Amino acid sequence: MSQLPSLPRQIALDLGHTPKPTLDNFIATGNENLIAVLKDIQSRWQNPKDKSTLNATLNTETKMIHLWGASGSGRTHLLSALQLQASELGIHAYLLNHHSSMDEWRACADVLVEDNQAPGLLCVDDIDHLSEFAQGALFRLHNLIREANHQHLITTSLTPSSHLQIREDLKTRLVWGLVFQMHALSDSEKLQALQQAATERGLQISNEVAPWLLKHFHRDMPSLMSLLEALDNYSLETKRAITLPLLKEMLAQKN
């Protein structure tokens, strides 16, 4: 009995891997003003010799930013991108959320207080779910960063601050600075984003691939971009064009 040809063995199918989050690989449609503000912050870190920007004391509005938007709008992507960029530049940077321990909250406060004249960044994701202790810690950090010259605080939530079930004094501080509602991509914008990402990779994908992904796969952009990367690798390994049959074959092998 003849055997069916086997697929290549060493095919990269790590669908859990996503590209490192950056401001540049965030699809800014609907959030252009927000991205412009965040890139301005980033440029201050990247140009430390520019005394006109580094020595200028930041105002409260610039130092404190609150983002809110539906799940999948990219809030965590932006926080992670800023935290990674700051850390790579040697800037004290923290990304905390409701899973962070008491010790992590305390350590963040200690460092920001100890070196409050140096650039610093604190990102707090999903403040909707913070414990009573974490809310108190964030309240104190708000006050500390407000008094510092070059530190930024960026927070996120699922709903507007007025709808949050958190302590009132913390809710008030969320509107001290800039507030942005983040807009999730529509299906047509997601299709455009996938086509753009494919073009940037030098890929040609058949017209039915992207719509099929939106209908049958995870609809968030990180998952879609991760699958596109895996599809690129699979196409190279099998030396075949990216078509719907190839996509289904790859997912069947993964499963």
List the defining traits of the structure above.
single chain; Rossmann fold; disordered N terminus; 255 residues; alpha/beta; Helicase, Ruva Protein, domain 3; 11 helices
How would you describe the overall organization of this protein?
This protein is an alpha/beta fold and 255 residues long. It has 2 domains: 32-49 and 59-181, P-loop containing nucleotide triphosphate hydrolases (Rossmann fold, 3-Layer(aba) Sandwich); 187-254, Helicase, Ruva Protein, domain 3 (Orthogonal Bundle), CATH 1.10.8. Helix content is 48%, strand content 10%. It has 11 helices and 5 strands; from the N terminus they run αααβαβαβαβαβαααα. It has helices at 32-46, 51-54, 60-63, 75-88, 102-114, 132-147, 168-173, 187-200, 209-216, 221-238, 244-254; strands at 64-68, 92-96, 120-124, 151-157, 178-181. Strands 2-3-4-1-5 form a 5-stranded parallel beta sheet, sandwiched between helices. Helix 6 links the parallel strand 3 and strand 4 (151-157). Helix 5 (102-114) packs parallel to helix 6 (132-147) and helix 8 runs parallel beside helix 10. The model is unreliable at 1-17 (pLDDT under 50).
